[in-house]
Design a protein that fits this description.
globular, alpha+beta
Length: about 90
C-alpha cells in the first residue's frame, strides 16, 4: 500500500502530455479534465484508476489535467506523482 504523505506533481501542460497532482486526503478521489474528454474520458479514467490500484493507493486526491496524452504517458505521470507524494525519489 502506498501512503500519500505530501502534495506532489508530474507532467506538463504541453500538448500530448498530462499534468497530475496528488495530495493527501482521507478517501480516494480522482478529478479529470481533458481536451478529449468526450472521446476518451472513460479510457483516461480507467488508466488512472488501474495505475492507482497497481500502486496500492487507497486514499488521496488525484487531479489529472490531460492535453491528449496516450495511456503509457498517463500511467507514467500518475506513477511518478504518487511515488513523489509517497516520499520516493
Amino acid at each position: 500500500m502506498m501512503d500519500i504523505k505530501k502534495t506532489a506533481a508530474a507532467g506538463t501542460m504541453e500538448s500530448s502530455d498530462v499534468f497530475v497532482t496528488v495530495a493527501p486526503a482521507s478517501e480516494l478521489t480522482v478529478e479529470i479534465t481533458s481536451v478529449v474528454i468526450n472521446q476518451y474520458g472513460e479510457a483516461i479514467k480507467n488508466c488512472v484508476n488501474r495505475t492507482l490500484s497497481e500502486l496500492g493507493v487507497r486514499s488521496g486526491k488525484v487531479t489529472v489535467t490531460d492535453k491528449g496524452a496516450i495511456d503509457c504517458v498517463i500511467a507514467a505521470r500518475v506513477e511518478t506523482a504518487v511515488k513523489r507524494a509517497g516520499g520516493e525519489n
